[in-house]
Amino acid sequence: MGRLSLKETRQKEIILAFYTVAKKTGLENASIAKVADYMDINPSLIVHYFKTREALFSGLIEFILQQYSQIYKINGQAYTRTSEVKKLIDNLFSRKWDNLFDDSVFYSCYALTYRDKNIRSAFRLLHDSLRKLLIDALKKANKNGVINIKSEKETAEIIFALMEGAYYYLGMVDSRTDYTRKLATLKKQALALLGMG
Amino acid sequence: MGRLSLKETRQKEIILAFYTVAKKTGLENASIAKVADYMDINPSLIVHYFKTREALFSGLIEFILQQYSQIYKINGQAYTRTSEVKKLIDNLFSRKWDNLFDDSVFYSCYALTYRDKNIRSAFRLLHDSLRKLLIDALKKANKNGVINIKSEKETAEIIFALMEGAYYYLGMVDSRTDYTRKLATLKKQALALLGMG
DNA sequence: AAATATATTGAACGACCATTCAATATAAAT
DNA sequence: ATTTATATTGAATGGTCGTTCAATATATTT
Fold first, then answer.
1. Residue at minimal CA–C1' distance from C26?
2. What is the torsional sign of CA B105, B110, B111, B114?
């Protein structure tokens, strides 16, 4: 009895608003007050749903990582054909994600990794699970003779380093042509590792 | 006439203190007030040397990038011997730098890259100049027949991606053994690119 | 010793913030 | 209609912050 709880709905709304404000002002300047202002509600309502500012941050991290993980919905393939592997690599080195989350907010969250144990392990967990997905894919492809590599684990590690290194550096590159050329170079290298030069 | 200026000395002291406070509290929580408190001076003295909070940030960025560039004091070599190239790669994939700057502060500064044009171009400039150093080294080595690669530029790009990707991910890895094993894998790959497997 | 430029302090202001608490509003259940 | 649990508001508190400004201190030059 009593009024129905809006907790889950409101929490999601608030976190989305928090993310929006962070995009606009930078995570370091995103405050409960600003989010409330943006949502046109009272600050204390936000506190009602998130006991503390830190809880709000946790919610944002969860949201960001959830978005991040969406990149890898390239699952359930059998990897019996070259084109499937090619598609997988294409996906990793594509920038569909640009629309999935804001780089500024993402790297600000990443920086928190060095100060907050919970955020750190959440990030680590996601990155490891994504690596597992690639490893599994490579194992299947290897078994099917689509590729021929010695260690799926090592190859996956290298491909991820190429990809994450690419996005680290390319985040600073404004020129569209430079960006695509450099990204193509690194993708080509990833394919070469799989004997798909 | 009048009193001698302490401007340069004090500015350096203040920036170093700012960096120290940022290490302790996180860049997002480092304030003029806290720095003044840490230095046991009046906040207004900091304002006297840095007109604005933003100027203080500029100083910190300069400091961080200066530290970062120190990694690459592997210059002036002739690259006529394999060992010199090997040493170069060893350096890139070593973690001497761990002592040069704090990861948390560094990536917080990196995140600012997405919001501040000046910081962005400063970062970009440094990263490009470091790439040029490697490209030059590879060109010499290639000319001397120490290595045999098709494009020094592309190879350098790939090696940097491997390295920067390595540090991005390894920043989340707590296990010493995992860390060294994964780093070794990536270094090995860099060497393989140079035909030095 | 006087003049002068810079160093340093200290107080004060206005802005913003997270959090608290009590009061009011609203919807569901009985 | 009353009860009840949750939603939402609004005001207030105490803290921190960047910045300003006037006052004082100190060192150098003449």
1. A3
2. positive
